[in-house]
Amino acid sequence: MPDWAALNTLLGDFAWGLDTKDPDAVLACYWPGARYSVQAADGTLHGPHEGHDAIRAHFGGTIGRQTDTRRHVITNVRVASVAGATSTVAAYLTLMVTVDGVLRPRCTGTYRFVVREEGGELRFDESSVTLDGAF
């Protein structure tokens, strides 16, 4: 079972990187060779993006185009399975967006993270999000 504080810090760092539009901060949450994908509400699969270069390109392009203020709220975190130093974690996403001072919900979804602890550090080996609507 991953350390609960380390897991919540990792998820917080991931969301913070997205919200501050900092692809390097997002990338720091991933082990080299990790994978990331997005399943859009219309069924389109974006990814998997494999390795740091592909993950950086995806997040850099996506958050680089956003002109609004976003807050990725990650809740209902639960460890679904554990195998040695690797755990599968599920969580909900609520994406809140502010435009011209007006806050509105933008999208919800479900995250799946595969996290691995190595050398006392916890990072993603894999992450994916299945969106319930447009993001």
- As a percent range, the share of strand residues is over 45%
Q: What is the number of E strands?
A: 6
Distance between the termini: 32 Å
Report the uncertain regions: none
Radius of gyration from the alpha-carbon trace, in angstroms: 14 Å
Q: What name is given to the CATH topology?
A: Nuclear Transport Factor 2, Chain: A
User: Residue-averaged pLDDT, rounded?
Assistant: 94
SSE pattern: HHEEHEEEE
Biggest sheet record: 6 strands, mixed
Number of helices: 3
Care to describe what's here?
- This protein is an alpha+beta fold and 135 residues long.
- The longest helix is centred in the N-terminal third of the chain and has 16 residues.
- The chain has one domain: Nuclear Transport Factor 2, Chain: A (Roll), CATH 3.10.450.50.
- It has a six-stranded mixed β-sheet with strand order 2-1-6-5-4-3, covered by helices on one side.
